[in-house]
Please model this.
Amino acid sequence: MKVTDRVYCRIGEHGNSNNGWILGDEYCLVVDTAAFPDETREDITRIQETTDKAIKFLINTHFHPDHTFGNMYFSDIIGHAFCYEKLKEMIPLYMEDVKKEPQNEKRLQQVQFRLPTLTFRGRITIHAEPDTIVAHKGGHTLGSAVVYIPEEQVLFSGDLLFAGYHPYMGDADLPQWIAALQSLLTLEIKFIIPGHGELCDLKEIVRHITYLETFLDTLKDLKKKYSKETLIQNPSLLDLPHMGNEERICKNINAQYDRV
Ligand SMILES: [Zn+2]
Model:
């Protein structure tokens, strides 16, 4: 899907992970891979249909497998230092998980894990014409980063945004996540490619901040009265809006109860 003259994206079906690419004057940058190697190969074909320029860098917004399981098809991969460390730590576990997914076993068996080859800590600018800024934000995961192309007024938010879906909070620091989103509100942005869900804009960031604040404040209050188990059995007590992936609320309570 064409977002601007220089930015394209693929929106995953049913809330599956999104990714995209940026057409520079001399080369092309890719942001995140699909969840499966075969989908990533399809993405590369799509990229080659839009440009004759070579792919120079893949950027991993964070370590989660639905954004990194196609890393094997790219030579130079940029990721935050924590993204590198966490992916390295998780690979043995992911290998076990792959075996436990009989439905997708065949597709996932093709995965050859590959780590970022270039890491950064604060932010870097890739002078790809247009300049592309990769900035560390944290929140969703410790090493989460966003990709911003000021000239195009486009942001790849990674999983800091799940547009229309309950977000995944398994590795999240909620106060840091809220602060990360607040820091994006001052940017000039026309289009946001979220980590999951449809193409959106700054309104989605505002909505997400409200969602995360509600989750955090309500969980803190409920914790005074209810055990973790009770809340997991009664997720409607959190009074969250109805969105895709409702089952995720219980998992998020489980992940965040002891942290709030
Ligand atoms: Zn994701």
Q: What stands out?
A: The domain at 7-202 is CATH 3.60.15.10 (Metallo-beta-lactamase; Chain A). The longest helix spans residues 202-223.
